[in-house]
Amino acid sequence: MNRSIVLALFALSALVVACEEPKSQTGGTTGAAAPAPVVLDDKDIPTAADYDDQAEKDISATNYKNELDTLEKEINAQD
Questions:
Q1: Tens-level pLDDT at each residue, the chain (79 residues)
Q2: Does the residue 63 lie in any domain?
Q3: What does 29-41 look like in DSSP terms, one character per residue?
């Protein structure tokens, strides 16, 4: 009984050691270069002012209620 327990523990520990990923000796990544940092410019981030011209074209006095209903449905769907 004790012998089978010792053999089972030995086999389990051998499996754990065999399943570990080998670590590189240099401490860095293996063969992959570090990705370049992302640089964002203020022009890349849209603001409300960017959408004003499009809204003036899309929304008129005749369809503003429909547009408002559409926006309210989108907001309620997100909740």
A1: 677 787 777 777 777 766 666 666 665 555 667 888 888 888 778 888 888 888 888 899 999 999 999 999 999 998 7
A2: yes
A3: -SS-PPPPPP---
Q: 76: closest CA among 49, 68, 54?
A: 68
Segment holding 54, helix H or strand E:
helix 48-58
CB 30 within 8 A of CB 24: yes
Q: Work out how many domains the chain is built from and give that number.
A: 1
Residue 22 domain flag: no
Query: Could you tell me if residue 14 is inside a domain?
Result: no
Upper half-sphere CA count for residue 8 (Cβ side, 13 Å): 5
User: Domain range holding 62?
Assistant: 45-79
Q: What pTM did the predictor assign?
A: 0.38
